[in-house]
Amino acid sequence: MRLLPALCLLFVLMLCPAKAGQPNVVLFLADDLGYGDLGCFGHPLIWTPHLDAFAKQGVRLTQCYAASAVCSPSRSALLTGRTPHRNGVYTWLAEGSEVHLRRSEVTLPSLLKAAGYTTCHVGKWHLNGRFNDEAQPQPGDHGYDWWMATQNNAAPSHQNPRNFVRNGMEVGELQGYSAQLVVGEAVTWLKEKRDASKPFFLAVWTHEPHYPIKSDPRFKELYAQLQDEVQKEHHANVTQMDAAFGELMRTLDATGLAENTLVYFTSDNGPEGDGIKSPGRGSSGGLRGRKRDLHEGGIRVPGMVRWPGRIPAGSTLDAPVIGSDLFPTILAATGVKGEALGGRVLDGVNVLPLLQGTAKGGERSQPLFWRLLMAPNAKFALRDGDWKILADERLEKFEFYNLAADQREERDVQEAEPQRFAEMRGLLLRHNAAVEAEGPDWWRRLSPNGAKPAGEEKAGKGKGPVGKKKDEA
């Protein structure tokens, strides 16, 4: 079974050698960055000069969604184009969990590598429970030539971390702050380690501003007027991430790579905290909910794309775009074909025409869909056009909103729109059943964070997965 993806990728390689002039691609992913956490998305205090400048160089996505309200599932959708319950990474992954991004999933870096790209991942990984353990696939097994990563957080904190692994070898203690260390590795790879004869795909996944937050004093000084230390630390951490992003953009400029590089910036989910007891942990931009919540504040995130000469500078896209759209969009931008997909369902669509402003495009065969059983409120959500429906765990209690008129989700219109509500309820039930039938059953057997239920033996390092063959396929 495990030979099949490799054989399919070899087939793609024979059909699709790298073409002259193919664009490079950078995917820059922040962690727990809220919709309202950047200056270019309306924050009145947080200083993000590099991202604000970047927003003027490309298109700003005003309805950009993560594929989940927590980290691991949204990351799996970026790499596969498939909604998390379909690709199996249904929740955030505790260390030691048997849940992982399966070898049978065809990933974006694998397809690009097979088509002649050189590939690199730096920063947080969080797509397996057994990190750097041959029992589960690692970044290199999913198409990366070079990688330096952590399983989840940088530890013991995001300052002077000791748990990074580079290409399967433990790095040891590093000096500095996570975002700068991660981007520093990316810069070294760009300048010294990559095969410069090939186009590249570079994934930079920072830990900032995920807790435990550690910010360089030089960035905290910018917020000396704030009395709330939690808020000061958070704001400085976003600025720290922005500074690292700026260093990466300067490197692209200095090496002459910027003009032929598509850069996609986004976040994995909404901001941490409840907004009341911990108001300094990011801004949802006034939207309802935060991380772990399927209301807009938990899933709507900042999004920006730059591709000089191909995407209009200073433009805005108001149409919905979700993380799973990255996969088909990058394939379209690079001209890489997807024969290795073998007919599997993609939930994302190519939104390149929308980004370029040349056509409507982005017609969806699959609705925007979220499912998170650990969410404190609704466990399911589906958006079709301007309509959004949410449901409880038993799919018996619903909320229904028209986002065009009520993006804060304050006015439930089930009674006012009974026919539309009935249509959306039926669509949600049918779509969820189809997704559930295709994906593995980890979610049935494990806890909401992917760990074994209390009383069961914890999976041991180096042991094979204990799940069904369907899970590991």
Category by helix and strand content: alpha/beta
Low-confidence stretches: 1-18, 457-471
Give me the side-by-side strand order of the main sheet. 7-6-5-4-8-1-9-10-2-11
Can you give the helix content as a percent range? 25-40%
* CATH homologous superfamily identity of the largest domain: Alkaline Phosphatase, subunit A
- Give the tally of structural domains: 2
**Rg, alpha carbons:** 21 Å
The largest sheet is: 10 strands, mixed
Total number of β-strand segments? Answer: 16
Element-by-element helix/strand order:
HEHEEHHHEEEEHEHHEHEEEHHEEEEHHH
Tell me what the CATH architecture of the largest domain is. 3-Layer(aba) Sandwich
Total of helices: 14
Whole-number mean pLDDT: 90
Whole-Å distance between the termini?
7 Å
Oligomer: single chain
Strand content: 5-15%
Based on Cα principal axes, name the global outline: globular
CATH topology of the largest domain: Alkaline Phosphatase, subunit A
CATH class category name of the largest domain: Alpha Beta
